[in-house]
Description:
Its main location: membrane. By secondary structure, the chain is of the alpha+beta class. Helix content is 48%, strand content 20%.
Amino acid sequence: MTEEQLRRVDDAIASYAIISDPPPKELQAVVEMAAYVARVPMATVNVITSHEQHQVAAVGFEAAVCRREDSMCAISLAIGGQIVVPDASKDARYSANPFVRGPLGDVRFYAAQPLLTPDGFAIGTLCIFDTEPRELDDDQKTALLTMADRIVDILELSRRTRALNDSLVRMEEMRDELVRSNEHLAAFAGQVSHDLRNPLSTVAMSLYLLQEELEDDDEPTGVRTVERALRGTRRMQTLIEDLLAFARVGGTLRREDVHLAAEVPMLLADLAGALGGADVTLRDLPTVCGDATQLRAVLQNLVANAAKFTRPGQAAEIEISGRRSGEGWRIEVADRGIGIGAEDAERVFEPLVRLDEGADGSGIGLATCRRVVQAHGGRIGIEPREGGGTVAWVWLPDA
């Protein structure tokens, strides 16, 4: 074998961690079965690297490690295929080997079946032997091949299980880090909100007092100036509350069956003022699994946006519906409003992004919606509606 081939074999062996870690216990059972079926006193699983032979499971003798150049099975791998030798002392390929003539052994009967990985790398053998000459019948030869395949299956299962466990550990670490990040974000938002509220409250209180004084003095210009300042403080207070909500939502969920057919009419009643003369249609609203309060807030935000961004001079036309989609439900809030360009369909979910600076809002609503939906294991998006308008959709998985 070339150095490159040997290196690739070493990489394949390393991927199974069969030398660095304790080998799977199932290998010992296969080795014992091989010895029993062949009626021989000794059997082993040999893993052969570029430099050594490792007997990782054995019956009839103590497993050990030897140099590759001393290995009978290294010779067999170079030959290829199943090898059955009735008397190795009379076979020119093996007669001079230290396992045959000493000092490592006095092997006479010898048989080896290569262990071939799914990628075609021969990483070792299932080997059976005896100090007395003997033969194998066809059934025993077939059994040797079958057991060698099962050994590779065991190694593959062990490797994939180890990879899965590693992935689970990484996922748990990521989850823990996400929890810590969420806690830090909530704490930061809470502190910032607290720090901003105090001076804002002082400003607002002073403006209210000033407004009362100006009203008593009948100075309408001054009153209008103060009213504009008060509106500014109220907008800042709303932004603070939205930021705090964005930091807090999506953390701890109270999962339960949420009957949207009952929830949606109630949130429409809450939005009566914002909806005005809107034409709202409800269709096929499902029951989903999630946090009722947070999901209701998501839909309320989407419906409010549908009512807000209408075409000039037109009443809002809104359709709220649900349908089965894969292993979950897709809920849609469709309108006939001004629409959103494809280049902005993703950007609107970023915090503080406002496509229309003249519209009311803080630019936090859709970012909060995405945060809630992702906490439920779902997805959210916006796409054009056929015939004009926008479809805001939420996909939620089954429980």
